[in-house]
Amino acid sequence: MNALFEYSDRLNSPYECFIFDTNLHPFPVRSHWHYFMEIIFITEGAGTIVCDQDTYLLEPGDMILFLPQQIHSISSTANVPLKYFVLKFDVNQLAPSSASCGSAFCGIHFNSLFRVAKGNANTPLHLTADAIKLFPIERLFADCCEEMIRQEYGYRIMMQSNINILLTYVLRIWRGCGFDTDQSFALPKEEDSIHTITEYIDAHAHEALKVEDLAELCHMSYSYFAKNFRELYGQSCKKYIEFIRLSKAEDLLLFTNLDLNYISQETGFSDCSHFIKAFRSKHGKTPRQFRSEHG
After folding, report:
1. For residue range 135-177, what is the model confidence (pLDDT) as tens digits?
2. Which tens digits make up the pLDDT trace of 64-111?
3. Is the CB of residue 209 less than 8 Å from the CB of residue 134?
């Protein structure tokens, strides 16, 4: 199975969305698997999809989900050119949606729900055009593509919002098929935490985070946590924290006039010199140069 693994830089590219045209890209897509989730939406032609042991025929307006670690391949039907939207994202980085339900508190924990959905008879991965006709699916894919191309202020938030909406539509369809969405609340916390710790890191990146403390939150030893984190994200937890801080700093540099001292404090760096050093290491230029070059 390792020979089929497709690496993805989930730290630097937590979201991807593009149009795949078999006239322009290498095709067919050979069998492979990855840790991120992938969803495709057919716009032209017809495709044969093999996912794990199942084969699906997709036509225009159809959508299919590839859950993390599912082996899948894509080929055209009768050598007809194929065009489709591709959306890739790290479901572990989707923060749980929440809402107030009267006196109770409820929310959608996407990561947990899509983990328990794998292999469930009530969670069809192939959703036909007829099954999704009531939802603006194609528009959501188009919006995601536009956000990825333009990458304007807040595009990461817009991407996550569109993905949240898309996945909520999927869950509504699955509930209609009999899928019990309350299952996620019954998952043991220690089983779930290694997959959701990135949510905590994102929310607390401005604080003094220590890997030892994060491991304790996950009820794991430091070494076991570090090993599992690197396996899931392809980077050490320390590098991941720095990546999140630098991503937040980039937005502040691009879209505010805040000075470097404030930005370094706001994003959790110990001091401004540490921030500048880390930024130069990633971009090959200082924060001031980055801000100047990007106007």
Report:
1. 999 999 999 999 999 999 889 889 999 999 999 999 999 999 9
2. 999 988 889 999 987 789 999 999 998 877 766 554 444 344 568 888
3. no
Q: What contacts 93, CB < 8 A, 6 or more positions away?
A: 10, 14, 160, 198, 199, 202
Distances in Å between the alpha carbon of 83 and those of 24, 36, 105, 146? 10, 22, 42, 17
Helices then strands, counting H and E runs in the chain, come out as 10, 11
Share of the chain above pLDDT 70, in %: 87
The pTM for the full model equals 0.69
Do 162 and 250 share a structural domain? no
> Within this chain, do residues 40 and 135 fall inside the same structural domain, yes or no?
yes
Structure tokens at 10: 């989930």
Do both 261 and 288 map to the same domain?
yes
Contact 211, 226 (CB under 8 A): yes
| Tokens standing for residue 13 | 């590219």
What are the angstrom distances between the C-alpha of 95 and each of 56, 66, 153, 169? 31, 20, 19, 17
| Residues 148, 74 within the same domain | yes
Bridge partner residues of 16 (DSSP): 88
C-alpha dist (Å) from residue 288 to 143, 212, 250, 264, 292: 31, 33, 11, 13, 6
Phi (first) and psi of residue 98, to 5 degrees: -140, 155
- C-beta neighbour count of 262 within 10 angstroms: 12
| Helix, strand, coil shares, percent, the chain, to 5 | 45, 20, 35
Q: Domain check: are 66 and 15 in the same one?
A: yes
- Residues 76 and 208 occupy one common structural domain: no
Q: What domain range includes position 214? A: 188-293
| Domain count of the fold of the chain | 2
16 & 137 share domain:
yes
